[in-house]
Specification:
The complex is a heterodimer. Chain A is α/β, with parallel strands linked by helices. Chain A has 17 helices and nine strands. In chain A, strands 6-5-9-7-8 form a five-stranded mixed beta sheet, covered by helices on one side. Chain A has a four-stranded parallel beta sheet with strand order 3-2-1-4, sandwiched between helices. Classes of the chains: A alpha/beta, B mainly alpha.
């Protein structure tokens, strides 16, 4: 029996799934009509009861976050949707918004009503022009249908391509027109967020999950998932697999099960390492195939569920090379606000480049770990912490491979073997 | 509504292509097909 539970992705295979007609055909916008007739506090309680947790990486309970917004304060409140999906490997919001942008708009209407906000801002990654077009059209159609503009407005804001703007306070600075850099907390956005007003910042998938919860109830949502990680979620499978894509399943499914459902590792190859939640989560290996992919299970095994971006690498991949590429990304994307991340990621890249080229020494490995130790927990935001995860975990599991680069005087792997066109005779 | 239009024009994306490049690819839909009893 399939363990997959399509809720968000239930109608993605229909040609007009992204249109307002296609969405309404399956009950779209009935949840928002129901919610608008409810007391806002009752909606917050319902979302709390459902057990929905943030799908952007941290897993903070969504209903609780909404509950932090001070009520009756006669101040403007804002909802901000974080659609700045930029983490290497993370690719769930883009297909979700392409296939069904209206579920996000309906979620925005419900969330705005719950937190007593009149404005929702969708901050979207600027590079994904096709998604921007799609969401823009959906907002326009929702206005024409009279679903927006009656006390709740949705504004689409296009980012300029900085990974740091996925960090919620940097996102708020960017949205206000400033350079995107993280803010010191407290005050948290729930107290002083956008324009210093109480603000809820939620991930696309979190808000898109709300209409189904309102329509079907908290108990229905709780019936999926594990004890503390309720509901279903999108697992994004990529890399050396026969069938990459989105697999919507209850929290707690294992990678082994997802691989069985999806057609497994690239034919003729074996699993070497993988990320459970994008490149900023510590690596897992084949020994972690049966780790339940929920917040607690992944954490207990030494990593983080993150964005459920399952990047799969087979035995042809050089882990040093993969980690170097990720670290180059973090160095490039460091906003420069704090010294540990700005300087530290630069040095990490220098050391990793030397190691990959066979010019490193064993002392460099100790230095890498020391640098990571000085970045982890000392950087201003989670970007610095995330940059260290692939390095420390790869040295933990693949120290011998780092040493092999030193003794071999270079990378012992054939870089072509890990490509999709390997063996094609090109 | 005006805001959404304005933003679209600024970014050059209210170009009538919102319906193009629509469907998620076959591999992406495999999870859905499996759940629906296909594939």
């Amino acid at each position: 029996m399939s363990k997959l539970t399509p809720v968000l992705s239930a109608h993605w295979d229909e040609k007009d799934s992204f249109t307002i007609e296609g969405y309404k055909r399956h009950g779209g916008y009935t949840a928002s009509a129901k919610a608008l007739a409810m007391d806002p506090d009752a909606i917050i309680q319902l979302v709390k009861d459902s057990g929905l947790r943030g799908r952007g990486g941290a897993g903070f309970p969504t209903g609780m976050k909404w509950g932090f917004i001070p009520q009756g304060d006669n101040r403007e409140h804002y909802l901000v949707v974080n659609a700045d999906e930029s983490e290497p490997g993370t690719c769930k919001d883009t297909p979700l918004l392409m296939a069904n942008p209206h579920v996000l708009i309906e979620g925005c209407i419900i969330a705005c009503h719950a937190i007593r906000a009149k404005h929702a801002f969708i901050y979207i990654r600027g590079e994904v022009t096709h998604v921007v077009r799609r969401v823009n059209q959906a907002i326009e159609d929702a206005y024409k249908a009279g679903l927006l503009g009656n006390g709740i407005d949705v504004v689409l804001h296009i980012g300029a391509g900085a990974y740091i703007c996925g960090e919620e306070t940097a996102l708020l600075d960017s949205l206000e027109g400033f350079r995107g850099q993280p803010r010191l907390r407290p005050p948290f956005p729930a107290i002083a967020g956008l324009y210093a007003r109480p603000t809820v910042v939620n991930n696309v998938e979190s808000i898109a999950s709300v209409p189904a919860i309102i329509a079907n109830g908290a108990e229905w949502y709780q019936s999926m998932g594990t004890e503390k990680s309720k509901g279903a979620t999108l697992y994004s499978l990529s890399g050396h697999v026969n069938n990459p894509g989105q697999f919507e399943a209850p929290l707690g499914i294992t990678l082994r099960e997802i691989l069985e459902l999806s057609g497994g590792i690239r034919t003729g190859h074996t699993l070497k390492f993988w990320t459970p939640g994008g490149s900023s989560t510590p690596l897992f290996t084949a020994e972690h195939l049966d780790v339940p992919l929920d917040y607690e299970g992944v954490s207990a095994a030494g990593s983080m569920l993150g964005t459920k971006a399952l990047q799969i690498f087979d035995e042809t991949t050089c882990v040093v090379r993969a980690v170097l590429r990720w670290t180059e990304f973090y160095k490039h994307e460091s906003c420069g606000k704090c010294t540990p991340c700005r300087e530290g990621t630069w040095w990490l890249v220098q050391l990793l480049r030397d190691l990959e080229a066979g010019k490193g020494t064993e002392a460099d490995l100790a230095k890498l770990l020391d640098l990571c130790d000085n970045i982890m927990g000392r950087s201003f935001c989670a970007l610095g912490d995330g940059a260290t995860s692939p390095i420390t975990s790869s040295i933990k599991y693949f120290r011998d491979e780092y040493i092999a680069h030193i003794t071999h005087g270079g990378c012992p792997f054939d870089p072509v073997a890990s490509t999709l066109f390997a063996g094609a005779g090109a | 509504m005006d805001n959404a239009y304005a933003l679209g024009y600024v970014a050059g994306i209210s170009d009538g292509l919102a319906n193009e490049g629509v469907q998620a690819g076959e591999p992406t839909l495999l999870g859905l097909k499996k759940a629906k009893g296909g594939a």
